[in-house]
Amino acid sequence: MTRVGDGTGLIETMRARGGRIPWLERHLTRLRESLAGLDLAAPPDDLAPLLRAAAGWRDQVVRLEVRAGRAEITTRPVAANGSMGVVVAAEPHAPYPHKTTAREQFGRAFAAARRTGADDALLVTREGHVAEGTAWSLFWWDGGNRLCTPAADLGILPGIGRARVMELADAQEVRVPVSALAGCSLFLVNAVRGIVEIGTLQGKAVPKDARTAELSRGFWPD
Fold first, then answer.
1. What CATH number is associated with residue 127?
2. Tens of pLDDT along 112-123?
3. Closest CA to 103 of 203, 13, 219, 218
4. Does the N-terminal or the C-terminal CB of the chain have fewer CB atoms within 10 Å?
5. Which residues span the domain enclosing 23?
6. 112 and 56 share one domain
7. How many domains is the chain built from?
């Protein structure tokens, strides 16, 4: 069993759409598994009705944080979607298999990316393998018919959005360097904003692929 610092909490960030939270039970299952895996205290209340009440009828983000057996639920507006400019982070990726509050590596990478005028950053392992964005899972079309994503055993977060894409399309989990992404059509995904295309990588234009738009149209369940 993995243990973390006493002050560490867990986060689930969800999208409220039309009065409900898609994949609510998946979020709560991941939370329960992480609480058990990290030997952290679970809150005493059933969180599902509390989260549904917080969702209301607006399209918004619902954030759940569980720390020391207590749950805090907050909401915020959904950021506008649009293609993103992404740079490769200088700091190497450290394994992040649980969505904990220990997110300093992602905060530093995001801040550094914004200082360069980019929208976000892509983190790479010490061995040189593409891993994940600061709050996103990465996918790309490899130039043929193959959809690819970094291998889960690199220590990336098991994203809810990532799992949804892999339900919609057959994706290969691979270990590749950044150079393997050259000329590929890339997109990011999470369970808050869905699928978002990468417009530039390291300042170079990324080609579009109609299959990304098709996946995006089917991303949210009815």
1. 3.20.10.10
2. 999 999 999 999
3. 13
4. C
5. 10-76
6. no
7. 2
